[in-house]
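Deliverable D4.2, example record:
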Amino acid sequence: MKPRLKKHFSPADPKPARLIIDAPRDGAANMAADEALFNSAANLPYAATLRLYSWSPPTLSLGRRQKLEEVDTEKCRAMGIDVVKRIGGGAAVYHGDEITYCFVSRNDLLPLPTCEQWHAAFSLFLEKLGLMPDSAKVFSTSPHSDGKKATSSVAEAPNIIPSLARRGCRGGSSTPPTPPLEKGRDSHSQDSPTCSIQPVSSHNGNACFARAAEDEPTIGGKKFVGSARRKSKAVFLQHGSILLSPQPAFLRDLVPGAEPDASTGLKTLLPSLTRETAHTALIDAISRTFSLHFPSLP
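Output generated by the structure prediction step:
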Protein backbone atom coordinates (compact mmCIF):
# COMPACT_ATOMS: atom_id res chain seq x y z
CA MET A 1 0.00 0.00 0.00
CA LYS A 2 1.37 3.42 -0.94
CA PRO A 3 1.92 5.87 1.93
CA ARG A 4 -0.56 8.71 2.13
CA LEU A 5 1.04 12.12 2.32
CA LYS A 6 -0.28 15.01 4.32
CA LYS A 7 -1.27 18.00 2.24
CA HIS A 8 0.77 20.25 4.50
CA PHE A 9 3.85 19.54 6.61
CA SER A 10 5.16 21.43 9.57
CA PRO A 11 8.91 22.18 9.37
CA ALA A 12 9.54 19.42 11.92
CA ASP A 13 7.75 16.72 9.92
CA PRO A 14 10.12 14.35 8.10
CA LYS A 15 8.57 13.80 4.69
CA PRO A 16 8.17 10.24 3.34
CA ALA A 17 10.87 9.40 0.83
CA ARG A 18 11.86 6.38 -1.23
CA LEU A 19 15.31 4.78 -1.29
CA ILE A 20 16.57 2.71 -4.24
CA ILE A 21 19.94 0.95 -4.15
CA ASP A 22 20.59 -0.56 -7.56
CA ALA A 23 22.99 -3.20 -8.78
CA PRO A 24 25.59 -2.09 -11.33
CA ARG A 25 24.16 -1.31 -14.78
CA ASP A 26 25.55 -0.16 -18.07
CA GLY A 27 25.51 3.51 -19.00
CA ALA A 28 22.36 3.49 -21.10
CA ALA A 29 20.38 1.61 -18.45
CA ASN A 30 21.53 3.95 -15.67
CA MET A 31 20.59 7.08 -17.59
CA ALA A 32 17.24 5.55 -18.59
CA ALA A 33 16.54 4.83 -14.92
CA ASP A 34 17.30 8.42 -13.90
CA GLU A 35 15.10 9.76 -16.69
CA ALA A 36 12.28 7.43 -15.68
CA LEU A 37 12.47 8.74 -12.11
CA PHE A 38 12.32 12.32 -13.39
CA ASN A 39 9.32 11.59 -15.61
CA SER A 40 7.34 9.63 -13.00
CA ALA A 41 8.09 11.53 -9.78
CA ALA A 42 5.10 13.86 -9.99
CA ASN A 43 2.74 10.86 -9.94
CA LEU A 44 4.37 9.09 -6.98
CA PRO A 45 3.36 9.56 -3.33
CA TYR A 46 6.87 10.46 -2.15
CA ALA A 47 8.32 13.88 -1.48
CA ALA A 48 11.65 12.60 -2.83
CA THR A 49 13.41 9.53 -4.19
CA LEU A 50 17.10 8.83 -3.70
CA ARG A 51 18.68 6.29 -6.03
CA LEU A 52 22.24 5.04 -5.40
CA TYR A 53 23.97 3.09 -8.14
CA SER A 54 27.18 2.13 -9.92
CA TRP A 55 28.36 1.30 -13.44
CA SER A 56 29.36 -1.82 -15.36
CA PRO A 57 31.18 -1.46 -17.67
CA PRO A 58 32.92 1.84 -16.84
CA THR A 59 31.24 4.73 -18.60
CA LEU A 60 32.02 8.20 -19.84
CA SER A 61 29.00 10.47 -19.47
CA LEU A 62 28.49 13.86 -21.05
CA GLY A 63 26.24 16.73 -20.07
CA ARG A 64 23.20 17.09 -22.27
CA ARG A 65 24.67 20.13 -24.02
CA GLN A 66 28.02 18.55 -24.75
CA LYS A 67 28.68 17.24 -28.23
CA LEU A 68 29.70 13.65 -28.91
CA GLU A 69 32.38 15.06 -31.21
CA GLU A 70 34.28 16.16 -28.09
CA VAL A 71 34.98 12.49 -27.29
CA ASP A 72 37.33 9.98 -28.91
CA THR A 73 34.65 7.31 -29.22
CA GLU A 74 37.00 4.86 -30.97
CA LYS A 75 39.39 4.96 -28.05
CA CYS A 76 36.48 4.50 -25.62
CA ARG A 77 35.28 1.50 -27.59
CA ALA A 78 38.78 -0.02 -27.64
CA MET A 79 39.03 0.38 -23.86
CA GLY A 80 35.57 -1.11 -23.23
CA ILE A 81 34.12 2.17 -21.98
CA ASP A 82 30.49 3.08 -22.66
CA VAL A 83 29.63 6.63 -23.73
CA VAL A 84 26.27 8.17 -22.76
CA LYS A 85 24.63 11.56 -22.39
CA ARG A 86 22.97 12.63 -19.14
CA ILE A 87 19.61 14.36 -18.86
CA GLY A 88 21.30 16.89 -16.57
CA GLY A 89 23.88 19.47 -17.59
CA GLY A 90 27.54 19.53 -16.72
CA ALA A 91 30.75 18.27 -18.31
CA ALA A 92 32.43 14.92 -18.95
CA VAL A 93 32.72 12.42 -16.09
CA TYR A 94 34.43 9.02 -16.09
CA HIS A 95 32.29 6.66 -13.99
CA GLY A 96 34.45 3.95 -12.47
CA ASP A 97 35.13 3.62 -8.74
CA GLU A 98 32.47 5.90 -7.32
CA ILE A 99 29.05 6.18 -5.73
CA THR A 100 26.53 7.73 -8.08
CA TYR A 101 23.35 9.27 -6.75
CA CYS A 102 20.13 10.55 -8.26
CA PHE A 103 17.84 12.71 -6.12
CA VAL A 104 14.38 13.50 -7.49
CA SER A 105 11.78 15.53 -5.58
CA ARG A 106 8.27 16.85 -6.08
CA ASN A 107 8.16 20.63 -6.09
CA ASP A 108 4.74 20.65 -4.41
CA LEU A 109 5.92 18.49 -1.48
CA LEU A 110 9.51 19.63 -0.93
CA PRO A 111 10.85 23.19 -1.22
CA LEU A 112 13.19 23.53 -4.17
CA PRO A 113 16.64 22.39 -2.96
CA THR A 114 19.20 25.17 -2.87
CA CYS A 115 22.95 25.22 -3.42
CA GLU A 116 23.40 26.06 0.27
CA GLN A 117 21.51 22.94 1.27
CA TRP A 118 23.51 20.69 -1.05
CA HIS A 119 26.76 22.17 0.25
CA ALA A 120 25.54 21.46 3.78
CA ALA A 121 24.53 17.90 2.86
CA PHE A 122 27.89 17.04 1.28
CA SER A 123 29.77 18.68 4.15
CA LEU A 124 27.75 16.66 6.67
CA PHE A 125 28.43 13.53 4.63
CA LEU A 126 32.18 14.16 4.91
CA GLU A 127 31.95 14.84 8.62
CA LYS A 128 30.11 11.56 9.17
CA LEU A 129 33.05 9.81 7.52
CA GLY A 130 35.48 11.66 9.80
CA LEU A 131 36.65 14.12 7.12
CA MET A 132 36.59 17.90 7.28
CA PRO A 133 35.72 19.95 4.18
CA ASP A 134 37.91 22.93 3.35
CA SER A 135 35.29 25.24 4.83
CA ALA A 136 32.63 23.65 6.99
CA LYS A 137 30.72 26.92 7.25
CA VAL A 138 30.81 28.53 3.83
CA PHE A 139 27.03 28.41 3.97
CA SER A 140 25.50 28.50 7.41
CA THR A 141 22.32 26.72 6.43
CA SER A 142 22.00 23.98 9.04
CA PRO A 143 21.67 20.31 8.09
CA HIS A 144 18.25 20.79 9.77
CA SER A 145 17.72 23.76 7.53
CA ASP A 146 14.87 26.17 8.13
CA GLY A 147 16.13 28.33 5.27
CA LYS A 148 17.76 30.92 7.56
CA LYS A 149 21.40 31.82 7.13
CA ALA A 150 23.90 33.33 9.56
CA THR A 151 26.85 35.49 8.59
CA SER A 152 29.77 33.13 7.93
CA SER A 153 32.08 34.41 5.22
CA VAL A 154 32.28 32.62 1.90
CA ALA A 155 35.89 33.77 1.73
CA GLU A 156 36.76 30.98 4.18
CA ALA A 157 36.77 28.59 1.20
CA PRO A 158 38.97 29.89 -1.62
CA ASN A 159 37.77 27.24 -4.08
CA ILE A 160 34.10 28.12 -3.74
CA ILE A 161 32.74 31.24 -5.39
CA PRO A 162 29.47 32.89 -4.31
CA SER A 163 26.57 32.79 -6.73
CA LEU A 164 25.61 35.82 -8.74
CA ALA A 165 22.05 35.58 -7.49
CA ARG A 166 22.15 34.51 -3.85
CA ARG A 167 18.47 33.75 -3.36
CA GLY A 168 18.16 30.02 -3.89
CA CYS A 169 21.26 30.13 -6.14
CA ARG A 170 19.07 30.86 -9.14
CA GLY A 171 20.68 32.41 -12.19
CA GLY A 172 20.16 36.15 -12.39
CA SER A 173 20.96 39.08 -14.56
CA SER A 174 23.89 40.35 -12.51
CA THR A 175 27.07 41.15 -14.43
CA PRO A 176 29.77 38.65 -13.50
CA PRO A 177 32.95 39.96 -11.91
CA THR A 178 36.43 39.58 -13.40
CA PRO A 179 37.62 36.88 -13.88
CA PRO A 180 34.21 35.86 -15.22
CA LEU A 181 32.23 33.19 -13.44
CA GLU A 182 30.19 30.68 -15.32
CA LYS A 183 26.64 30.99 -14.05
CA GLY A 184 26.01 27.28 -13.96
CA ARG A 185 24.75 26.55 -17.47
CA ASP A 186 27.56 24.07 -17.98
CA SER A 187 27.27 22.74 -14.46
CA HIS A 188 23.47 22.63 -14.39
CA SER A 189 20.81 22.70 -17.06
CA GLN A 190 19.26 25.99 -18.12
CA ASP A 191 15.90 25.26 -16.52
CA SER A 192 17.37 24.57 -13.09
CA PRO A 193 18.51 26.62 -10.11
CA THR A 194 22.15 27.47 -10.80
CA CYS A 195 25.36 27.72 -8.82
CA SER A 196 28.43 29.58 -9.96
CA ILE A 197 31.61 27.63 -10.54
CA GLN A 198 35.28 28.53 -10.25
CA PRO A 199 37.30 28.02 -13.45
CA VAL A 200 40.79 26.65 -12.81
CA SER A 201 42.05 26.82 -16.39
CA SER A 202 41.47 28.53 -19.72
CA HIS A 203 39.95 25.41 -21.29
CA ASN A 204 36.38 25.12 -22.44
CA GLY A 205 34.76 23.58 -19.37
CA ASN A 206 34.57 20.03 -20.75
CA ALA A 207 35.71 18.10 -17.66
CA CYS A 208 33.48 18.08 -14.58
CA PHE A 209 36.19 17.47 -11.99
CA ALA A 210 38.41 20.36 -13.09
CA ARG A 211 36.41 22.88 -11.04
CA ALA A 212 34.13 23.03 -8.03
CA ALA A 213 30.62 24.43 -8.16
CA GLU A 214 29.26 26.46 -5.29
CA ASP A 215 27.32 23.51 -3.87
CA GLU A 216 30.38 21.22 -3.89
CA PRO A 217 32.70 21.35 -0.85
CA THR A 218 36.33 20.45 -1.46
CA ILE A 219 38.98 18.58 0.53
CA GLY A 220 42.49 20.02 0.48
CA GLY A 221 41.54 22.03 -2.57
CA LYS A 222 40.44 18.89 -4.43
CA LYS A 223 36.98 18.06 -5.72
CA PHE A 224 35.32 14.77 -4.70
CA VAL A 225 31.72 15.33 -5.81
CA GLY A 226 30.28 16.60 -9.07
CA SER A 227 26.58 17.13 -9.78
CA ALA A 228 24.18 18.28 -12.48
CA ARG A 229 20.51 19.25 -12.38
CA ARG A 230 17.27 19.29 -14.30
CA LYS A 231 13.98 20.90 -13.29
CA SER A 232 10.45 21.01 -14.62
CA LYS A 233 7.44 22.81 -13.16
CA ALA A 234 6.65 19.74 -11.08
CA VAL A 235 9.94 17.95 -10.44
CA PHE A 236 13.54 18.66 -9.44
CA LEU A 237 16.37 16.23 -10.29
CA GLN A 238 19.99 16.32 -9.21
CA HIS A 239 22.36 13.49 -10.01
CA GLY A 240 26.08 13.23 -9.53
CA SER A 241 29.22 11.29 -8.71
CA ILE A 242 30.97 10.91 -5.36
CA LEU A 243 34.45 9.67 -6.19
CA LEU A 244 35.99 6.79 -4.29
CA SER A 245 39.03 7.02 -6.59
CA PRO A 246 40.17 10.12 -8.50
CA GLN A 247 39.33 10.64 -12.15
CA PRO A 248 41.86 8.67 -14.24
CA ALA A 249 44.71 10.37 -16.09
CA PHE A 250 43.53 8.76 -19.34
CA LEU A 251 40.35 10.88 -19.27
CA ARG A 252 42.32 13.48 -21.21
CA ASP A 253 42.90 10.87 -23.93
CA LEU A 254 39.17 10.14 -24.12
CA VAL A 255 38.23 13.84 -24.14
CA PRO A 256 41.00 15.61 -26.06
CA GLY A 257 41.70 19.02 -24.61
CA ALA A 258 40.01 18.20 -21.31
CA GLU A 259 40.82 20.55 -18.47
CA PRO A 260 43.48 19.56 -15.91
CA ASP A 261 41.99 17.30 -13.28
CA ALA A 262 41.41 18.58 -9.74
CA SER A 263 39.76 15.51 -8.24
CA THR A 264 40.42 13.31 -5.25
CA GLY A 265 38.84 10.05 -4.17
CA LEU A 266 37.54 9.31 -0.70
CA LYS A 267 39.51 6.04 -0.60
CA THR A 268 42.68 8.07 -1.08
CA LEU A 269 41.92 9.62 2.30
CA LEU A 270 40.13 6.63 3.86
CA PRO A 271 41.60 3.45 2.33
CA SER A 272 39.30 1.15 4.31
CA LEU A 273 36.10 3.00 3.35
CA THR A 274 33.38 0.64 2.17
CA ARG A 275 30.56 1.42 -0.22
CA GLU A 276 28.05 0.49 2.48
CA THR A 277 29.55 2.95 4.97
CA ALA A 278 29.49 5.71 2.38
CA HIS A 279 25.88 4.87 1.47
CA THR A 280 24.78 5.11 5.09
CA ALA A 281 26.53 8.45 5.62
CA LEU A 282 25.08 9.94 2.42
CA ILE A 283 21.53 8.77 3.13
CA ASP A 284 21.65 10.20 6.63
CA ALA A 285 23.15 13.51 5.46
CA ILE A 286 20.47 13.96 2.79
CA SER A 287 17.64 12.94 5.10
CA ARG A 288 18.73 15.44 7.76
CA THR A 289 19.39 18.26 5.32
CA PHE A 290 16.02 18.01 3.57
CA SER A 291 13.98 16.63 6.50
CA LEU A 292 13.16 13.34 4.77
CA HIS A 293 12.36 9.91 6.16
CA PHE A 294 13.94 7.05 4.22
CA PRO A 295 13.27 3.41 5.11
CA SER A 296 16.01 1.65 7.02
CA LEU A 297 18.81 0.07 5.04
CA PRO A 298 18.43 -3.71 4.69
